[in-house]
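Explain this protein:
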Amino acid sequence: METPSRETGPRIAVVGGGIAGLATALRLRELAPAGSVITIYEQSGTLGGKLRTGTIAGSAVEFGAEAFLTRDPAGGESAAVALARRLGLDTELVHPATGQAGIALGGRLRPVPGGTLVGVPGDLTKVAALAQPAADRDRDAGRPLLGPDEDLAVGELVRRRLGDEVVDRLVDPMLGGVYAGRADTLSLATTMPALARAARTENTLTGAVRAAQAAAPRAPGQPVFATVAGGLSRLVTAAAEALVSPTGNSPGDARVQIRLGAAVRELTRTPTGWRLVIGPTRDPEAVEVEAIVLALPARPAARLLAGVDVGAGALVGRLDYASVALVTLALPAASLPDLSGFLVPATEGTLTKAATFFTTKWGHLRRPDGLALLRASVGRYGEEHLLQRDDAELTATVHRELGRLLADPALPAPVASHVQRWGGALPQYTPGHLDRVTAARNMLRTAHPTLALAGAGYDGVGLPVCVRSGETAAEEIVKALGGTTV
């Protein structure tokens, strides 16, 4: 059994080597008490979680997350951009060549209308070509749309105020593209926090949209998204190198270890901290640490918490996840629309729910040979059984559907393809999610202040959110150990 050494300082475990875990470890290294030993335990053989860059037809493309927001909700630099800068990759950031996306409706691709907030319009005239809002429903009743602590499903609010078409043709496909979930079950406060805040002061939904947009202004011409030239896996590699480098930013001389293939199976309290059981049942390894961050999806985190705090574990474990598959195709001489991609409403009845035209959206991916690279996202929450097809059948289905959605029955056959399956990948935040997470964290802070939670299962999806979640968890641990975050 490993035990903390008073000569080396506290040992801190970070369970999970995705971007949240890496951000946690980087911040811990900056702030942890002198001589700390920080160990990342990752059960798979690779770091990065859902950041995974691969190669198809000789081009580097993303098999996981594709890009990140450049600004935070207050209009400042996002945590992902700040991380890229700290890792020396800020000069490698690239932005989309086109940001215009489409929506597939009735065999036609129509441009996503501007001026909406995740599909919810602030000006009803701008969405008239796609959906007919029930404008008479969005009347001012003399009180805010939501109470101070109220949360509800996005679809419930939008259907009530603007009707079914706005939800089915705009909001639902946009939320489906991000979360693989449905507007009628996803929490407004979690998936659209700016709109939820505005709805607590505004009396109409269109007014709330306009207020939310005004609260987060964007300078004209400022890019919304960015990625790293060469792929987001470069962010993972740079983070890992910075963590183990002896010359890294570590005023307290903290040391970082990275252990791959190290599944944490049990977690129990000890008089001085925590005891982890790692590895297979037949050959377990016990490790003792003084603090721990669970940078894991909610379900495995809940299993570990079950032996520590039943109440917190039950709250965390209520979160469910959707599974998706990403099918990437390399098409010769394909004539694609001048769009970044398109979304598909569930009412269209296709397995494909979204597609990205890599070589149109990203100028640095365009090829001199004219080969088109595109990626389809497949699978909505509750449709996991449809993903049981083998790779060949899934690829053929996507190719056939793309031909129909693009109104191009002669869409060229792919010269290369790749199927990436992400089981249980996307959190399904039901109403009350943020309150449950807050309650669980409060329980842990009170009874177990040297244990913190980080990641998309708690704070939301997207690189900036996950990076900030990890950094916040690290700061909480440092405070619990008596250090300072200044």
Q: What stands out?
A: The CA atoms of residues 75 and 216 lie 6 Å apart. The longest strand covers residues 416-428.
